[in-house]
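Work Package 3 (structural annotation) set out to generate three-dimensional models for the target panel prioritized at the project kickoff. During this period the team completed the workflow that converts sequence records into discrete structure tokens, so that structures can be stored uniformly alongside our sequence database. As a representative example, we reproduce one entry of 164 residues exactly as it appears in the project archive.
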Amino acid sequence: MREISAGGVVIRQKDDEWWMAAIELPPEEKDAPARGGKRLQSKAKPVICLPKGLVDPGEKALEAALREVREETGITATLITKLADIKYVYVRSWGDNQRVFKIVSFYLLKYESGEIDDISEQMRIEVGRARWVRLADAPKLLAYRGEKQMARKALDYIESDGQS
């Protein structure tokens, strides 16, 4: 089984600092299955991750990343550059317990408009809240190794390129 997903590291500069859009997974109910291979959230510490999701049939990865960012954070962004693809295998913790080979394409995106956390009530099943975090803090805050790497790549890109 294969899954193809896409997501974004959305950045903006405010008060001479770089910020990144992140999402917190909603608290899991006891015995609820993990979503999309994501780990269950503990009550003590929120699971913070990047906005991402499955690429729909006929959709390009960048289109999916921009759509997922809009749906999961409430903001609109534009492309700066592709960061990388993350590849991993997980075992579904619901239904068939099937092994899934997953590829997630991540893009560095620039904030354009919108209010963070202005998302639909239906999206609250997937997103507890969306918020801005300091890009410099993101590698420590993000829950997943591959996403920590994407935040570091975004930092490296900004520091080496001076991109805004």
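The chain has one domain: 2-161.
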